[in-house]
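INFO batch 0412 | record 1 of 1 | parsing
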Amino acid sequence: MAFLVITLGLSWLVFWGPLALFGVPTISFVDDTTGPLWAIVLFMIGGFTPSLTALVMIGARDGRAGLRAIWTRLTRFDIGWRWYLAILGVVAAGGAGQILLFRILGYGFDYRVFVLQLGSLAPLLVIGPLSEEIGWRGYALDRLQSDWGPLPASLVIGTAWGLWHLPLFHMIGTSQSSLGIPFLGFLVGTILLSVVFTWLHNETGGSVWTAVALHWVYTWVGQVVATGATRSTLYNWLEYLPWLLIAGVVAIAGIGIRTGLRPTRTVD
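INFO prediction complete | emitting tokens
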């Protein structure tokens, strides 16, 4: 809980919050918005607060042994081909569901954005997955679920994860602000996604790389889908309906059939 409080405090009070409060532009991967260098630096450092906070706390508690352990989990690439397929399948299903929902509502979708935004794929590996997942899934998840169980831990982390992004919705140049994404819908989405993250995390033995890979693919597909859609009030409220269905299936299967939503013991 100390990790969550520190991470949210740094986001709201030190890095992102002031930029949002005073309307200082930073940098955008959706349009050509570019702000002053110092604002971009604050924006970038703020994005790394979950992982940096976790590394500091791991180092203080467990020293070099703890840092080596988190590095091993971060570079555990051999999670098995079926879990790579699961990551791609889950994200593809969620993205396709959102596009289908959009078409059902009578709107078109510009599929060219998948090609136009290929250039943002590589930067998004760092900005988001690596900058966050050492904290959310690498540090907080195992500690929370070892005491509370996986579903409550998922809900807590999903809520904190969403609240951590809050300043981005009021910051010039971010996709959340530029695309008019409603925060409440986004918060629901992070909570639902957190259940999926926990399932894959536990199924792959607590591999932090699994969370990084899922976060990477999801962020890019989510950004592309959000960019190609002409948003409406109704779509804004229904946007995460496909993820509600996916998270529900994962939760039911994980508890009733598989072991993926039972806590792992990767930390003391």
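INFO post-check: Residues 255-259 have pLDDT under 50 and may be disordered.
INFO record closed
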